[in-house]
Amino acid sequence: MRVIYASRAASDFLDIITFGIETWGEDASRHYVDNLERSIARLGVYPELGRPSDYAGRRVRQLSTGTHIAYYEIGSDAVTILRILHASQDPKLHIT
Fold this sequence. Notes:
Blueprint: E1 2-5, H1 7-24, H2 26-41, E2 51-55, E3 58-65, E4 68-74, E5 78-86, H3 91-94
Parallel strand pairs: 1-5
Antiparallel strand pairs: 2-3, 3-4, 4-5
Helix pairs in contact: 1-2
């Protein structure tokens, strides 16, 4: 199954990279982002890996990795990553 990043999730991913480089340096950021990317890629093989959640009336799933949570939906032929939020962020404010 394919893994697709919605535009907001792609933007979240870039923000995570930028913040990581500015805060912890390139090597630490690369390590964190590689782990995040590998975890999300696993959803293509194991789409039900994350736990079910319900936000804004949407049935989504969430996968925690590091200090971030990927929120996603499972379609017939793809997993769509909706958002990648820091664990301190309220998903009810960011998932529509």
